[in-house]
């Protein structure tokens, strides 16, 4: 059986960046820019007031108290062509363009209305005080976002600012989720005593929320090769296929054989890890990425985190694909039999700049109840047998929602 590192390397070696294409601005968060983006105008586009107050010539406000004539009022969106006269000021609102001739703003708090259309202002004011100058953030034609940038909320806002309504990115893939198992019924069903509700579709879909991958849930196949073949064929119409269950050594685990019949090339099958030993990775006849996840929900959770998400990040064009590993202090002893690497469910929490890892007691890879208390895993090496309390260990967080729980001692 291959080790975790070997398996991950094999998966990432296969995972290739998607071709570039344009997608709507609103769908681009989490995608990676396939080319650099330039500013189509100066930012700010004009000398902009950052305060409500009075636009002035700084030379007119060089004393602690001056009185100027009010020449008019400028609202945001209003382009005044009139020049500011000497010894005058104009009332101005935040975001409005300075009138020609003005080079500073005195904020309204430093003003006091006077009679006959005048105003008293407290000075002195410096040139360009309370003004965001034209082009100070970026100049027209300069690069605002580099190729390879992961589009976050700020980048998405900046793309909107430069008018990029259709964004060149590495095209997000479509993924299909296939569930296998006679015993599996949808969450809305009333299961018979021997049946189980499908939790894996929910786990997979939740975990993929953070990536811009389009997900089609294709439903459940009974454990027979014909039905399975048909469903996998449907899945193979997408670039990525995620299959839950049916990859172990049981009599009804037909996924590997069906994949072979469909001309898929199996690259990884069975890895020396716990949970997740039966994990499978294959390439379909057209290069589709096929992930076989063991049916147990905790295995799905771990295999998503350790294999599927890193591979998808690479496919999307991310430079950083694997989770960031931290050193943590183990708060309770941990022992493991056998020589598989363990992903031990843990609650990780920060206290005074130190990360603590509390192992979560679990009944195994079917125990989703205890898994809800974990926000990450401790990486226990293959050959380690026992870890004493207080030992430094390597650990990483699960991605997605729930990261704030790293600030509290126990999971809610
Ligand atoms: P398998 O990998 O198909 O042998 O399944 C291993 C275990 O996971 C069995 O106990 C299944 O009942 C359970 N299981 C498989 N698929 C699901 C699912 N979609 N939701 C919940 N449990 C599942
Ligand atoms: Mg099964």
Comma- or semicolon-separated keywords:
6-stranded mixed sheet; 7 helices; 28 strands; binds adenosine monophosphate; binds magnesium ion; single chain; alpha/beta; 412 residues
Low confidence ranges:
none
Compute the number of helices: 7
Terminal CA distance:
37 Å
Strand order of the largest sheet: 7-4-6-5-9-8
What is the count of β-strands?
Answer: 28
Bound molecules: adenosine monophosphate, magnesium ion
Q: Estimate the mean pLDDT confidence.
A: 96
Helical coverage, percent range:
10-25%
The main β sheet shows up as: 6 strands, mixed
Strand content: 25-35%
**Shape from CA axes?**
elongated
- Secondary structure class reads alpha/beta
Radius of gyration: 30 Å
Give an overview in words.
The protein is α/β, with parallel strands linked by helices and 412 residues long. The chain contains seven helices and 28 strands. It has helices at 4-14, 153-161, 200-207, 225-235, 255-261, 297-316, 368-371; strands at 20-24, 37-38, 48-49, 53-56, 65-74, 88-92, 104-107, 111-114, 118-122, 131-132, 143-145, 166-170, 174-180, 184-185, 196-197, 214-221, 240-244, 265-269, 273-274, 280-283, 289-293, 326-330, 334-335, 341-351, 354-359, 376-380, 386-387, 392-397. The strands form eight sheets. Strands 7-4-6-5-9-8 form a six-stranded mixed β-sheet, with no helix packed on it. It starts with a helix and ends in a 15-residue tail after the last strand. The mean pLDDT is 96. Bound molecules: adenosine monophosphate and magnesium ion. Adenosine monophosphate is lined by residues 179, 181, 183-184, 196, 198-200, 244-246, 248, 250, 294-297, 366.
């Amino acid at each position: 059986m291959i080790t975790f590192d070997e398996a991950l390397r094999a998966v990432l070696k296969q995972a290739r960046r998607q071709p570039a294409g344009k997608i709507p601005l609103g769908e681009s968060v989490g995608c990676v820019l396939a080319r650099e983006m330039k500013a189509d105008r100066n930012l700010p586009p004009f000398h902009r007031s950052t305060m409500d107050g009075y636009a002035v010539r700084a030379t007119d406000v060089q004393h602690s108290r001056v009185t100027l004539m009010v020449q008019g009022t400028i609202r945001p969106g209003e382009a005044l062509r009139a020049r500011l006269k000497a010894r005058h000021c104009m009332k101005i609102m935040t975001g409005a363009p300075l009138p020609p001739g003005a080079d500073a703003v005195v904020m309204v708090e430093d003003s006091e209305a006077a009679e006959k259309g005048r105003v008293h202002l407290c000075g002195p004011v410096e040139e360009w005080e309370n003004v965001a100058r034209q082009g100070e953030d970026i100049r027209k034609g300069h690069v605002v976002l580099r190729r390879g940038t992961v589009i976050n909320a700020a980048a998405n806002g900046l793309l909107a600012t430069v008018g990029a309504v259709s964004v060149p990115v590495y095209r997000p893939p479509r993924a299909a989720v296939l569930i296998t198992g006679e015993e599996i019924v949808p969450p809305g069903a009333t299961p018979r005593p021997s049946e189980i509700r499908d939790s894996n579709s929910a786990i997979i879909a939740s975990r993929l929320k953070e990536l811009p991958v389009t997900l089609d849930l294709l439903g459940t196949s009974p454990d027979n090769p014909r039905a399975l073949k048909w469903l996998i064929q449907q899945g193979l119409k997408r670039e990525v296929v995620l299959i839950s269950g049916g990859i172990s050594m049981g009599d009804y685990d037909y996924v590997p054989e069906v994949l072979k019949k469909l001309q898929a090339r199996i690259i990884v099958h069975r890895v020396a890890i716990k949970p997740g030993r039966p994990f499978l990775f294959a390439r379909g006849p057209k290069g589709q990425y096929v992930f076989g996840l063991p049916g147990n929900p905790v295995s799905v959770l771990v295999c998503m985190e350790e294999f599927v998400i890193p591979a998808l990040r690479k496919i999307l064009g991310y430079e950083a694909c694997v989770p960031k590993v931290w050193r943590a202090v183990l708060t309770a002893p941990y022992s493991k039999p056998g020589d598989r690497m363990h992903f031990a469910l843990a609650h990780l929490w920060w206290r005074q700049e130190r990360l603590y890892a509390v192992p979560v007691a679990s009944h195994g890879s079917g125990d989703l109840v205890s898994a809800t208390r974990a926000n990450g895993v401790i990486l226990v090496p293959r050959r380690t047998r026992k870890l004493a309390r207080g030992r430094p260990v390597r650990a990483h967080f699960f991605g997605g929602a729930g990261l704030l729980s790293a600030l509290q001692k126990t999971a809610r």
